[in-house]
Amino acid sequence: MRHHIVSAYDRELTKLRGLVLDMGERVIDQTQTAVSALLNGNVNTARTVLEREPRIDDLNIEADEEIFSLIARRQPTAIDLRLVLALSKIVNELERGGDKAERIARAVIRLLDAGGLPIAPPILDSLRQLDSIACCMLERSLDATAAADIDRAVTIFESETQLYQLTATLRTQLLAPDTGLTPAQFAELISISFGLERIGNHGANIAEQVIYIVRGDDIRYRNRELLIDALRHSTGSRSEDAQPLSPC
Prior knowledge:
The protein is mainly alpha-helical. The chain has helices at 7-40, 43-74, 78-113, 121-147, 150-175, 183-215, 224-234.
């Protein structure tokens, strides 16, 4: 984000980026809190997610207003317009991520209110791992946005396979005949697994926007394996001293 002659424009872009990062950090915290409530069997913790959710909506509205105002007043062109449009899409991804965290919390509340524990330890462990990778992907996407860093974005794409493998493992565990789950418990846990998978997906979608900001390439429908190879090749000229990030 280069310096602009109009310092007010700089401040507006900085404010917008700050709103996006604040929104993203809150989505991550909401998700982790909701899953922690299930793992610890604490329904009150899950209810705090619902209480805090309106703040994400407020940030969404504030960011949208900032985007509309910035476009109307400054009429950005070229790379600046690309940045603003990408941030608008990132805000949308984060708003949807916040919705998923809220749905996870509601599912947890229904489970716990109905006496949904104990749940088999392997299932809880898979939920913990799925939560970890989904939130890691979303957090990495925020880091990549803040730094306009292609390498960080690529690690998110590389983590997608693990995200899908963990989701498949959890669903296989839930379908096992000896889980002792009632149909209602099964439905809530499947809903939670879907919500976590989608939060990871939102992280990957944000990473796509980082590539758009930096390179101007729309990569939404590109084959992931070929894309990762191309992006790794394009950044191969970086200093040998740079330490590449591992996938989540």
